[in-house]
């Protein structure tokens, strides 16, 4: 039961990440040591697994896809979104800098501790680290594109959005913003669907198809990369996490864009203006909180909660 509780808590952390702009569930999975296990579990959902279900061999199906792990992880994500996420919303509203500071400390520490999982820092691994960091920073600095509701572009949105949720350091909703379709998909279409307007499926179905394809295809690709080029893959993902520090930097001013759907105005962060802090009591407290976040990950690493990214137990 101890393992199930641990998986539940890691799922809760992944769920909480969904309400933090610039942080992805993949980042949390990576720093808590369950990333490869999650990728392998998703990869196992294939035609052979479906045949097991259709033939009534549910026990074998559960073992094949690591169902117990996926169940407890999914439960943690769901519970977190319904509970902890609201707490984080409150904290962001009243103590934004300090919340960013805590997560900055967490991610900063994870760069070091996850980077330790690279067996040998070869030239290729170092290059992977630089490439991953550059991509994550580039994404954070990009400007949104124009809206596009073509069928194949919507499929591409689903593929890329799901890929960004799986890859550490990239936020799925932020990627949709960059592709110009955040309002179309997440606000207009979802609002129509909740109101019973079935025309929303014209937008949501292609996105869903792309998301499923992206999840299955990318999980297989990542599993193969980890098997063949483990050190380079870990270095690349470490770079993604390191680059995401730009989005999590505590001292920044959010650039907010308003989206209107069915008469309801919603706001979404589309970028940031970064700055250096002045030496005040709030800054000193934020620096202390960054240190606390760093120590939290250090303690997790020492206790074995942040295991090797190759650990699938």
Beta fraction: 5-15%
Order of helices and strands: HHHHHHHHHHHHHHHEEH
Distance between the termini: 14 Å
Radius of gyration: 20 Å
Strand order of the largest sheet: 1-2
Instruction: Give the % helix.
Output: 55-70%
Number of helices: 16
Low-confidence stretches: 304-313
> Residue-averaged pLDDT, rounded?
80
> Structural class of the helices, strands and pairings?
mainly alpha
Biggest sheet details: 2 strands, antiparallel
Could you say how many structural domains there are in total?
1
The coarse silhouette is globular
How many DSSP E strands?
A: 2
Structure overview:
This protein is mainly alpha-helical and 313 residues long. The protein has one domain (2-303). It is built from 16 helices and two strands. The protein has helices at 2-17, 25-31, 35-43, 47-54, 58-64, 67-82, 84-94, 96-115, 123-141, 151-166, 172-178, 182-194, 201-228, 230-243, 245-248, 281-303; strands at residues 252-261, 264-274. It has a two-stranded antiparallel sheet. A hairpin with a 2-residue loop joins β1 and β2. α8 (96-115) runs antiparallel to α14, α8 (96-115) runs parallel beside α16 and α11 (172-178) packs across α12 (182-194). The longest helix has 28 residues, at 201-228. The radius of gyration is 20 Å and the shape is globular. The two termini are 14 Å apart. Mean pLDDT is 80; it is low at 304-313.
Q: Could you give the topology of this structure?
A:
Layout (H helix, E strand, L loop, with lengths): L1 H16 L7 H7 L3 H9 L3 H8 L3 H7 L2 H16 L1 H11 L1 H20 L7 H19 L9 H16 L5 H7 L3 H13 L6 H28 L1 H14 L1 H4 L3 E10 L2 E11 L6 H23 L10
Antiparallel strand pairs: 1-2
């Amino acid at each position: 039961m101890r393992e199930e509780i641990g998986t539940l808590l890691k799922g809760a952390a992944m769920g909480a990440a969904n309400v933090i702009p610039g942080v992805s569930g993949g980042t949390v999975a990576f720093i808590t040591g369950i990333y490869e296990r999650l990728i392998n579990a998703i990869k196992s959902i294939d035609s052979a697994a479906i045949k097991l279900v259709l033939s009534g061999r549910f026990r074998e199906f559960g073992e094949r896809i690591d169902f117990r792990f996926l169940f407890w992880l999914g439960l943690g994500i769901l519970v977190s979104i319904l509970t902890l996420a609201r707490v984080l919303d409150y904290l962001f509203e009243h103590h934004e800098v300090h919340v960013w500071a805590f997560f900055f400390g967490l991610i900063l520490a994870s760069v070091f501790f996850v980077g330790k999982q690279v067996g040998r820092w070869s030239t290729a691994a170092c290059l992977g680290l630089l490439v991953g960091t550059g991509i994550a920073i580039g994404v954070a600095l990009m400007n949104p594109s124009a809206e596009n509701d073509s069928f194949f572009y919507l499929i591409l949105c689903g593929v890329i959005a799901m890929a960004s949720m799986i890859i550490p350091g990239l936020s799925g909703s932020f990627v949709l913003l960059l592709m110009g379709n955040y309002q179309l998909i997440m606000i207009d279409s979802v609002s129509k669907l909740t109101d019973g307007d079935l025309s929303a499926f014209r937008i949501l179905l292609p996105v869903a198809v792309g998301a499923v394809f992206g999840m299955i295809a990318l999980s297989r690709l990542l599993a193969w990369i980890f098997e063949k080029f483990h050190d380079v893959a870990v270095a690349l993902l470490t770079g993604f996490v390191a680059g995401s520090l730009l989005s999590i930097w505590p001292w920044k001013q959010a650039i907010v864009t308003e989206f209107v759907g069915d008469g309801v105005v919603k706001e979404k962060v589309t970028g940031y203006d970064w700055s250096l802090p002045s030496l005040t009591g709030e800054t000193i407290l934020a620096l202390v909180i960054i240190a606390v976040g760093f120590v939290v990950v250090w303690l997790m690493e020492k206790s074995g909660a942040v295991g090797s990214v190759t650990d699938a137990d």
